Amino acid sequence: xxxxxxxxxxxxxxxxxxxxxxxxxxxxxxxxxxxxxxxxxxxxxxxxxxxxxxxxxxxxxxxxxxxxxxxxxxxxxxxxxxxxxxxxxxxxxxxxxxxxxxxxxxxxxxxxxxxxxxxxxxxxxxxxxxxxxxxxxxxxxxxxxxxxxxxxxxxxxxxxxxxxxxxx
Length: 168
Prior knowledge:
Blueprint: H1 2-11, H2 27-40, E1 41-43, H3 44-52, E2 60-63, H4 67-72, E3 79-80, H5 86-93, E4 100-103, H6 111-121, E5 126-130, H7 132-138, E6 143-145, E7 148-150
Parallel strand pairs: 1-5, 2-3, 2-4, 4-5
Antiparallel strand pairs: 6-7
């Protein structure tokens, strides 16, 4: 079967294939890249599981958005520190020995990336929560607003029906 797959792969015209026009990386390079990616990122489900477990999750979750955005909704237990204030306030609010996981609005916003950069430049260990608050809410996790706690029905495109585990 393996030789059949290899023969099929070589028969594909890679010049006209937009996916394979640039060939995949060698397995060792791919392992290094994806391993490094996991050192920089955490996903919403993993953050939720760590926060829901008994005891200290081992990190501080930091919402880097504006106060107006924070008031509209944020992850319970998150620390609010807008990116623009990190340089002047991080040392008063964060323990440099505790990793920080940043988030902003969602995948269309790089605010969490900017916040992670600002923290890393100050010497903090940091990861970015992929999907941000948008995917926190879309996956059906509870959030807080200025009016109290809320929860939306999980979007079946982001979270499996009737399961807490996507199997990833």
